Amino acid sequence: MGFALAWEAFARGAEVTMIYGPTQLPLPVNIENILAPTAADMFREVKKRFKKSDFYISAAAISDYRPTEFSKNKLKKQNKNISLTLRPTEDILKYVGSHRLKTQKLIGFAVETENAEQNARSKLLSKNIDMIVLNNPLQKGAGFDIDTNQVSIFHKNGNSENLSLLPKLDTAFQIFRFLLQNQ
Question: Does 67 map to a domain?
Fold first, then answer.
């Protein structure tokens, strides 16, 4: 969805900076593309740039947790179980919401598989953003690694809309339409 949103913003005349994680997708042209291989890298790049933006869209589905220790070497197979200790990653959307300028519009995504609408609406308020786009990757035709998505959009003004299953570029168009109608 991030790539589709970047294309749509560019098509609408925006100057776009896209901060993205590892991907096999071709990078958009005429857009500043910044690779952020880890959640920490993405947080650092967002902190450097987001205050210069009129619209900030957080569509990346980065992990909520990361290992506390990293090994540069392969962990050889042994005849015993191993455990990984995880710690939370930085909450980029919460940071942006708490450091926003009054003129900025902030849009987040909620990937939810349980209590989806309730969790998305809660995230909308707790992150101090203007709009949240909910998608459930368990829905047929929605989520990652496919060219379609089915989302619900919630605005802080109380308006909401459920979109039907659409190609991601069409979904991006509808997200911007909804955003601009609810400014």
Answer: no
What range does the domain containing 174 cover?
2-62+86-181
**How does DSSP classify residue 7?**
H
Distance of alpha carbon 161 from alpha carbon 144, whole angstroms: 21
The Cα–Cα gap between 124 and 119 comes to: 9
Asked if residue 131 lies in contact with residue 182, where contact means CB atoms within 8 angstroms, the answer is: yes
In a domain, 74, yes or no: no
Query: Tens digit of pLDDT for each residue in 90-145?
Result: 999 999 999 999 999 999 999 888 999 999 999 999 999 999 999 978 788 777 77
pLDDT of residue 146: 83
Query: Which among 94, 13, 84 has a CA at the least distance from the CA of 54?
Result: 13
3-state secondary structure of 124: helix
Residues 6+ apart with CB under 8 A from 83: none
Domains contained in the chain, number:
1
Taking the C-alpha atoms of residue 90 and residue 42, their distance in angstroms, rounded to an integer, is 9
- Residue 70's pLDDT band, with cuts at 50, 70 and 90, is confident
Q: At what angle do helices 168-181 and 2-11 cross, to 10 degrees?
A: 60
Tell whether 58 is covered by a domain.
Answer: yes
